[in-house]
Amino acid sequence: MSIISVKNLHKTYEGGFQALRNINLNIEEGEIFALLGPNGAGKTTLISVICGIINPTEGDVMADGHNIVGQFREARSKIGLVPQELSTDAFESVWATVNFSRGLFGKPKNPEYVEKVLRDLSLWDKRNNRIMELSGGMKRRVMIAKALSHEPKILFLDEPTAGVDVELRRDMWKMVSGLREQGVTIILTTHYIEEAEEMADRIGVIRKGEILLVEEKATLMERLGNKQLFLQLQQPLSDIPQSLTDMPLILSDDGLQLTYTYDAQHEHTGIAELLRALGDAGIDFKDLRSEQSSLEEIFVDLVRAES
C-alpha cells in the first residue's frame, strides 16, 4: 500500500526556474526509500513539497490518504521531517524542545514516550543540557527526536548524516532500521552512496528535477551493475596483444593486471573465449577475481548518461 503518492508534480519558482518536472512517485508503507541525486537535483524541493513547506505549481501529493494542500493539518501530522540544516532553540533544554515540538502537533503530554525517543537516540543523559552545549552530532540527534516527537508514520531525513563522523553515522543507520521495524516509513536523501546501499529497500535517482528511475536496490544493481574480472599476470605486458584488442580489456600502468568488464546478466559473458585467447597469446596469469559494480559506480554512470 502506498503511504505517499505523488502525481504529475511540477514546481516552478518565480523567475521561471523549474525545480521539479512531472514527478510521479509512490512510496510504500514501511519501506526505506533513498533519493539520490547531485547537488541541485531537486531532492530538497521534492521533500519540501511533500511535507507541505512549499506549494506545488501543478500536481497532487497524498500522505497517508490526506491531500497535502487541501488537508494540510491531517497530512502534516503524519509526517516527521529532519531538515538538512541544523536549527534548534539554542537556549532550550533537550527535554523542553522535544516536548514543545510534540505540543505543536496538538499531541497530549506523554513523558514516557519522549523518554523512550531520547533513550533510543542516546540523548537521555543530555536531556537537561541546553542545545547550544551539544556537539553537532548530538544536535542532529535532537532534530530527529523533534521529528519523532508527535509519533509520525512517515519520517523524512534530508542528508541525515552530513558532517557527522562514521561512528555516529552507523548509530543512525541502526536507529533508522529500528524505526522501520516499528512500522515507520523512512525517506532519506543522501550524498553518501553507502548509506543507500546499506539501508534502502528501493532507490530513486533524481537529476535536474526529473526522476530518472526508481528500482529495488537489488534489481538496480543486477540490471545496471557490470562485473569486472581482474587477472594478475605472471609477467608484465608492455601493451595488449593485437589478438586481444577487440575485447573490453584494460591493462594496468605496471602491466601486471588485465581488467575485463562484462555484463553478468548475459548468458554469454565471453570469459571462456578470453581465457582461451590469453592461452593462445602465451599470457599466463597467477590469480583472478571478480567484483560487482558498486552502487556509486552505477549512480555516476546513470547521471553521466543523462547529461
Automatic annotation (TrEMBL):
Q: SUPFAM superfamilies under this entry?
A: P-loop containing nucleoside triphosphate hydrolases
Q: Where is the signal peptide?
A: none
- The segment(s) forming the ABC transporter domain are 4-233
For the keyword Nucleotide-binding, the answer is: yes
**Lineage per the UniProt record:** Bacteria, Pseudomonadati, Pseudomonadota, Gammaproteobacteria, Oceanospirillales
- Top-rank taxon of the source lineage equals Bacteria
**InterPro entries recorded for this chain?**
AAA+_ATPase, ABC_transporter-like_ATP-bd, ABC_transporter-like_CS, ABC_transporter_ATP-binding, P-loop_NTPase
Listed name of the protein: Multidrug ABC transporter ATPase
Instruction: Quote one Gene Ontology molecular function term.
Output: ATP hydrolysis activity
Pfam families with a match to the protein in the record:
ABC_tran
Q: What keyword terms does UniProt attach to this protein?
A: ATP-binding, Nucleotide-binding, Transport
SMART domains annotated for this entry?
A: AAA
